[in-house]
Amino acid sequence: MYNGGKIIIGLLIFVGIVTFPILYDRGKVTAKPDPKIDTPEILKLPENERKCVESKAFMTKEHMKLLNQWRDWVVRDANGIYINTEGKRYTMSLQNTCMKCHSNKKKFCDECHNYADVKPYCWDCHIAPKEKET
Amino acid sequence: MLEAAIKGRPRYWIWVSFLSAVILVGLIAWLREHHLGSGLTTGLSRDVSWGFHIGQLTFFVGVAASAVMVVLPYYLHNHKAFGRIAVIGEFLAVSAVVISMLSVFVIMGQPSRVWNVLLHPTPHSIIFWDLIVLMTYLFVNILCGWTVLGAERKEVPPPKWIKPFIIFAICWAPSIHIVTAFLYAGLPGRPHFMTALQAAHFLASAFAAGPSLLIILSMLIRRFSRFDPGTIAIQSLAKIVTYALIINIFFIGLEFFTAFYSQIPEDMHTLQYLYVGWQGHSELVPVIWTSSILAVLALFLLIIPATRRNENTLAVAALAVFFSIWIDKGFVFVSSGFIMNPFGGVTPYWPALNEFLVAAGTWAIGFLILTILYKIAVSIKEEVVFDKYGEKQVQTK
Amino acid sequence: MSMNRREFLKIAGASAILGFGGISAIDALEKVEGAQVLSELKALKAKRWAMIVDIKKFKTEEDYKKVINACNHIHNVPQIANPKHAVKWIWTDTYERTFPDLEYEYAPEEIKQKPFIMLCNHCDNPPCVRVCPVKATFKREDGIVMQDMHRCIGCKFCMAACPYGSRSYNFLPPRSYIKEENKEFPTRTLGVVEKCIFCYERLDKGLPPACVEASNGALIFGDLADPNSEVRKVLSANYVIRRKSELGTRPMVWYLI
Question: Does C244 map to a domain?
């Protein structure tokens, strides 16, 4: 074929680039993420009060959007209180509400984030709670 | 047409490799700044928050706008000589706009959030309009240049539908630089910037610097290829530079009058700091005087017909104009507005090495785009091509 | 159907741009449904927050330090020694530098030597808000000129526009320069601009700004639109000045000399 040499080399480079993610991670065992919600703060609450701001299903799927909206409501609209789908009121704050219960960033937040290889930039500014030695 | 860019003699590839190396150095320097923070990698400070890079934005938007000085006489007034270099001028505009936009991008503290400017449009902010007008101008120039060049390659006149875009580009060109001037001319705390003359002054200096660069590039094209932009075209450009330079120097004189006749302290202090030093600081005195001496030298070489017609002295004059205005608009103008700080004092500024290397990277990207576009344009024009008046574009003598 | 290389490239390019652009646009527009929010019951409300600096009440170095440290501590303001990269929300400087447009040569010696407190003036007609391309700095309904660190792109146009030098850019990574972190407030990161935000987070909980609380009456804070506020009373009974008032920014910080 015409320009056969260049085409084959180009194809090899292409295959190399496309399969690089698979080849790079081969042999690495990645456990399914298991975020732990057994922090001392959560365990202090009675069983029936161990509820997050919204349901687990909602939070798993939408916590990023919820946090973005909380951010805009607090900073831009001067509103501080969130009324969840059950009518309960929460102060909208990552550091002072979310992390007060989920005080174990490494075993909670980072579990899924590391697995999915996302690096949310929240922690560049928002101070993560100090990890307790377990 | 693109294949013309990947065929070339060794010297073409050496040049492209050199530019690529500079781009790589610039990229590493920028990543370093992004990682360490601009405190360690630039000369900027709390008082001088804009410096060398924003100066480059200011200067190169002017160069981009000056394409109108070639396109307008050709398309609106049938100045035939410019037929050969209309596309050359438009491609210069494309590279200059790219350098400008990169110069803004590299100063951003959170460059990944630049999308916010379009997600949250803010019509009362001039940066918003700057982005819009620059992107539009970039697109229009690529479209016009590419279409006209394509028509030249096929030896037919350009398609009729391109005319409205060309008229649009002619009207748009001054506006990109006026918007750039508006970045400065409406800031209440910066007396050096806040003059109604700012936009007019910017246009005058742009129409001196841009065509000067075009003169140099035309001479280089003539030297390195078989395509000749034409003596008449170069002389027309020289006349444009002459008058623009006269107006530019005149406008600088006007600033002096307003400041010193009114005796208003803050207006005088900036000029004093620049030309003789103030409050014990005279860091920019040698810089501004270099710019002024180059401008006066160029003025004489350009006004005297004999030296303007002689292409060697014209080349010296064009380089002098280009660097004079580059020093003034590309460095001194922006920096001095901030060096004269809001507390009535002076906070000196000088770009750091890393800052310069990042700028060199942006220039290299612009020059690489220029090289590739010119390689394509010149390859097409080198062959016997008829412009819209049926004149051959290759000079046989 | 036959297609040549140019047409293929054109179609591929256009599809790529539309594809990426389309996805980004859709992503950007998604919102969570059906949520409700309110402001805190205890939140302090006003139409125009304003402050008066009663400079006579600042007598010792300690008076200034108390006020500045109160702000710097609760907001995790980094303490950077090099004045080129310093981050200052509220700070002191000489009379000459605070009011460069005012009479200095024949001013009383006491005024010439006294440090003056400077902070963001939360102008009524703020040039910084006018120039911000992403509305990261914006004026709240109660008059506070806010800073949204999440949206700031670090272009520093606001710093160019501010006539008072009230704004600081994070030239250096701030966390290494924070003496003692306040865990209840975030820090900032490299590449964003910050400034005094009139302690909006305290006002929204019913508390006065930290500097006002620490000043022992030297900083008077209140609602300019309320004729009965202390701010209005002091303004009508005394001659007070503002910084660079000829610029039309209508600063909301006055100085009682």
Answer: yes
B 176-195 near C (Cβ less than 8 A):
183, 187-190
The CATH number of whichever domain residue C63 belongs to comes to 3.30.70.20
CB-CB neighbors (< 8 A) of B104 in chain C: 155
Does B394 map to a domain? Answer: no
pLDDT at A134 (0 to 100)? 46
- Please report whether residue B396 resides in a domain: no
Q: Using an 8 Å CB-CB cutoff, list residues of chain A that contact chain C.
A: 62, 65-66, 69, 71, 73, 75-85, 89, 91-92, 95-96, 121, 124-127, 129
| CB-based contact, C74 to chain A, within 8 Å | no
B83 — pLDDT class (breaks 50, 70, 90)? confident
Tell me the domain boundaries of chain A: 4-125
Report yes or no on C25 lying in a domain. Answer: no
**pLDDT mean over C31-48:** 78
| C184 contacts A96? CB cut-off 8 A | yes
Confidence of residue B397 (pLDDT cuts 50, 70, 90): very low
Size of chain A in residues: 134
Tokens for C204, please give them: 């929204």
Chain A contact set for C39 (CB, 8 A): 78-81
Q: Which residues of C40-56 are buried (b: 16+ CB within 10 A; e: fewer)?
A: beebbebebbbbbbbbe
User: C33 burial class (0-12, 13-18, 19+ CB within 10 angstroms)?
Assistant: exposed
* B97-121 pLDDT, tens digit each: 999 999 999 999 999 999 999 999 9
Dump pLDDT digits (tens) for C84-143.
999 999 999 999 999 998 978 899 999 999 999 999 999 999 999 999 999 999 999 999
Q: At what angle do helices B285-303 and B231-262 cross, to 10 degrees?
A: 130
Which residues, numbered 219 to 248 in chain C, qualify as contacts with chain A under a Cβ-Cβ cut-off of 8 Å? none
Q: At residue C62, does pLDDT exceed 50?
A: yes
Q: What is the value of pTM for the model shown?
A: 0.91
Contacts with B37 from chain C: Cβ below 8 Å: 170-173, 190-191
User: Domain total for chain C?
Assistant: 1
- Most C CBs within 10 A among B110, B114, B341, hence the mutation to make, goes to B110
What's the CATH code of the domain at B54? 1.20.1630.10
The range of the structural domain enclosing residue C78 comes to: 49-256
Give all strands (DSSP E) within chain C, no chain letters: 36-38, 49-54, 90-93, 116-119, 137-139, 145-147, 168-169, 193-194, 219-223, 253-256
Residue that the structure tokens 């190396």 belong to: B21
